[in-house]
Amino acid sequence: MRLRNKPWAKDLINENLDLIAIQPENMQGKWQTRFAKEQPIFIEVGSGKGRFITELAKQNPQNNYIAMEVQEGAIALILKKQVELKLPNLQLLLANGKDLSELFAENEVSGIYLNFSDPWPKTRHEKRRLTYKSFLKEYQYILKDDGYLQFKTDNQGLFEFSLISMNNYGMKFDELSLNLHEDEALNQNNIETEYEEKFSKKGFRINYLKAHFEN
Predict the structure, then answer these.
(1) Which tens digit of pLDDT belongs to each residue from 180-201?
(2) Which of 12, 28, 114, 167 has the fewest Cβ atoms within 10 Å of its own Cβ atom?
(3) Annotated binding site for S-adenosyl-L-methionine
(4) What is the pLDDT of residue 4?
(5) pLDDT attached to residue 91
(6) Domains of the chain
(7) What pTM was estimated for this model as a whole?
(8) Which residues contact 92 (CB under 8 A, 6 or more apart)?
(9) How far is Cα of residue 150 from the mean position of the Cα atoms in its chain?
(10) Which amino acids are annotated as binding site, given as ranges?
């Protein structure tokens, strides 16, 4: 997802540094200090416009959540919502998701969400896919032993690649669906992203999995 430049974004960010981290390299092992309570931390890597992560935080006050975006325009849209909502268990992070081990300490995170990530369909770009083995290594480092990775995509090619990549890495699948919205058991607690709602209405199937690392 690419957003147009938002001239108001920088000012909004600088006015709300209690809600958003813009120098995250100093936060390894200290993320709990940014929340009202010390609770399990969950991250969404690539939060888009923020519907998923804000709703997740609303529904689960017993957990802490971090919305992570590399695009200033996107994170600013989420921040605009959070300025109004003031959810005590939601923080924002403006950073690139490729080096999570530089942003979070080992075993600091309880769960990671990847929703409708860029599929990077060309073979020469496979190392940029968020389920490539180098990214999986980063996730494994920051996740607790009982932590998990949850992934949704409408892109069949990316989903198939991800299944193979995770399997080859030795991950174990806890939940799996090739048509999430038709799976009554899994879909009942599903929170849709803006993108998911739009494309599922057009008939696109939503692929879903939840997996963990073997220790």
Answers:
(1) 999 999 999 999 999 999 999 9
(2) 167
(3) 44, 69, 96, 118
(4) 61
(5) 98
(6) 36-213 (3.40.50.150)
(7) 0.95
(8) 19, 20, 21, 66, 67, 68, 69, 75, 78, 79, 82
(9) 9
(10) 44, 69, 96, 118, 122, 154, 193-196
